Amino acid sequence: MRRVSLLAKVDLDTCIGCKTCERVCPTLSIKVKDRKAVVDEQRCTGCGGCEQRCPVFAIKLVERDDPYTIEFKIVPEMKDKVDELCRKAKFHPEQIICYCTETRAEEVAAAVLAGNDTPEKISAATGIRTGCKIECIQPILRILNAAGITPEKPEGYQWYGLTPTLWDINEDVKKRYSDGGFRFDDDIEVFEKVINAKK
Amino acid sequence: MRKPIPPAKPKKSQYGIDPNLLKKRMAELPGITSVTVKELFPDTPDVIYPSEAGKEAIREATIKSLENVDMSMIKPENSVNICASHHGFTLLGGEAYTEMLKTVRDEIIRRTGCRNVRLRAGVGMRLRETEEYIKAFKLDEYFEGKAKGVAPIDKGIPIETEIGTLYGLNAIYDADFVVHCHNSDVREVHFHRQVDRAVKPFGMSYARAETRSTYHQNLGPRGANFTARAIFNSEFVQKKFAFATFLNMSPAGVVGVVSDNDLYKLNEKLTFDGLKYYGKIITLFGQLSDCIVGLDFPCPVPYVFASGVIYANFVSANVDLFNLESLAPYTWYTESFYGKDGKPLIPEIPPVNPKIKMVIHNYAWSGYPSAFFSTHTPTIVVGREQADLMSRCPMNAKYMDHAVIADTLDAAMEFAYKVTGTDKVLIFDGAAGGINVSESLAKEMLEKAPIVAEKVDNELMPIWLKQRGIDPLALAK
Questions:
Q1: pTM for the predicted model, two decimal places
Q2: Residue A115 touches partner B, C-beta closer than 8 Å
């Protein structure tokens, strides 16, 4: 769940149309048209990605007149499929996968099952990845992957790709670094317990 | 009763309140005294900074540390990126780290004739934080217009590693060579567990969001530390890596500056030193009785400092953070393992430090997801402006759901003393060389410190070293 109280505002006199804002927006809510950035006010979550990376400080976050909350409701009939998808992606359904918005795996899985097939659509539907915009991209990609979806990449550099998980580390690597304190197998054990926890 | 040590000054930043709104520091409260790290642990090494020599001591130590470093691979026509991180600028006001960066630049130019030496400074989650430091310390002028803050959502570059593709920041690697300039302060030991501490920025400050998400979501609370090693070991990074220079830190300040072409050699030394220097104070923190905690430093909630230790470490101090058998009470992994009923999904997740009875958020920044802290410990935020700052932050929409507001620090303390029933106060305000605490807590710390020191030296240190594959005798040679 994400409360949205801010909105990106562009100072058109300062904007140089460089498209940096467009390339980092996690919900594709800002586009450069006629060499000036234009915000889709309905869609903008006020995450500040554009404001923080604009090279000429042309963007400010302002209070919204119409604050709203983004949340994807899980309908009871979907619960089994949602749980199954979460566990296939190696998450417990109640596991928090976005620390900024406290979005849980089940909410993202439900959004995916409802047809949201890219990280950008999922962010717009659930609010995930609209806080720090850093830490939750892999869980999103993992859930999409578990659903058999290869998401279409946006034109910017919102994200690049799926990366390895603990389960992808081969025995040779584990053996070679066994005295380094990485404890891969211990961590797999912790994860397995969490994934299979009864709740 | 000794006078409190002057706390770190507030900083003007977009992530904090206007320093003019900070009416009173916690060190000014009645009954607050200080203890130095040296009083607690007499074997604490002497520091070169802070000292009477000032930043000149850092310059001298940096030049000396570079004497045995090979720079012959850098030719006059090459480009070099000096890679830095925001952490260093938060230590002791930032002057020491800044001086180290400037000196490394000057020495590269002097010894190689290469003038295309740039500064690339990475961040945590406050994406303009190093831009603020670059401006405050006039680093852009010093680097002749070649200083740049870089963020994890900036343009990336794929890096093939032995565990698969990870992603670095293009601006970090857009030179012929990279020089890794960091500090050994243990800081996020709840995350890195003092495993590959010196390598970590390759998977963090210098990395794209995908890689940082790998660290915090994919590889587990201990396995995560392999992320940086995988990137550093890659052919791509090895071709560019020239050398590393570190401020060697202790809870009392800068012990020295160390440099090496071999990052793993440096890593082993700094891992050992970190365990030795920080092991005692963090273990002591875990032994303290019920107390009120004060946050009063220009950093986000978990990163405020007391005797070189951050608040997040105190939140986890009820568990031995250096013992790799255990899970930390606070890491993003353990935070993620709390279910909708507010309880951990599995019993192995330890609770946050139950000795923290109340937290007074007198001065701390936004720009880091901190709702976990206000959810798990009663929190009073001083001043409406600071509460509004947290609520406006996209990472902290829920922080104030669990905190209350006091108009003044005095009102907050009056409430805290009454409700908790303790007069023990521990202040995280960046006091250099020691800790500002209530008289009662100072007494307790001085009583417990010798017992803790003996336990660390004789019992814990051998366990910690063994778990990391470090042989102290081999290291000494």
A1: 0.97
A2: no
Residues contacting residue A105 through CB under 8 Å, at least 6 positions apart? A86, A89, A91, A92, A93, A94, A95, A97, A139, A143
Residues A103 and A71: their CA atoms lie apart, in Å, by 9
Check residue B345 and give left, alpha or beta (phi > 0: left; psi -120 to 50: alpha): alpha
Using the predicted structure, report yes or no on whether residue B373 has a pLDDT greater than 80: yes
What CA dihedral angle connects B458, B461, B462 and B463, to 10 degrees?
A: 120
Mean pLDDT by 10 residues, chain A (199 residues): 95 98 98 98 97 98 95 96 98 98 97 98 98 97 98 97 97 94 97 94
The pLDDT value given to residue A1: 87
Is the pLDDT confidence value at B90 over 80? yes
Whole-number Å distance between alpha carbons of A49 and B368: 14
Contact across the interface for B214 and A164, Cβ inside 8 Å: yes
- CB contact (8 A) between residue B223 and residue A180: no
Report the distance separating Cα A47 and Cα A3, nearest Å: 11
User: Looking at CA atoms only, how far is residue A163 from chain B in angstroms?
Assistant: 6
Sort B308 into a burial class: Cβ within 10 Å, 0-12 / 13-18 / 19+.
Answer: buried
* CB < 8 Å to B347, chain A: none
Q: How far is B155 from chain A (nearest CA, A)?
A: 6
In chain B, where the domains are located: 19-44+279-457, 55-250
Contact assignment for B162 to A173 by CB distance below 8 Å: yes
Are B127 and A53 within 8 A, CB to CB?
Answer: yes
pLDDT at B476 over 90: no
* Spatial CA neighbour of B198 closest among B143, B251, B274, B255: B274
> A195: how many CB neighbours lie within 10 A of its CB?
19
The token pair that represents B191 in the structure block: 């995350």
- The residue of A183, A184, A189 whose CB has the most chain B CBs within 10 angstroms, and thus the best one to mutate to test that interface, is A183
CA distance A92 to A84: 9
Q: What is the pLDDT of residue A169?
A: 97
Cβ separation of A97 and B336 shorter than 8 Å?
Answer: yes
Helices and strands in chain B: count of H runs, count of E runs? 19, 17
Q: Per CATH, which fold does B55-250 belong to?
A: Rossmann fold (3.40.50)
Whether chain B has a CB inside 8 Å of the CB on A114: the answer is no
Least CA distance to A161: which residue of chain B?
B210
**Which residues in chain A are contacts of B332 at CB distance < 8 A?**
99, 135
Check residue B472 and give its pLDDT: 82
Domains, chain A: 2-70 (3.30.70.20), 76-163 (no CATH)
Q: pLDDT category, B473, cuts 50, 70, 90?
A: confident
Contact between B120 and B155 (Cβ < 8 Å): no
Pair of tokens at residue A37: 């950035």
pLDDT band at B1 (very low <50, low <70, confident <90, very high): confident
Return the pLDDT at A6: 97
Query: Per the CB < 8 Å rule, is A3 touching B397?
Result: yes
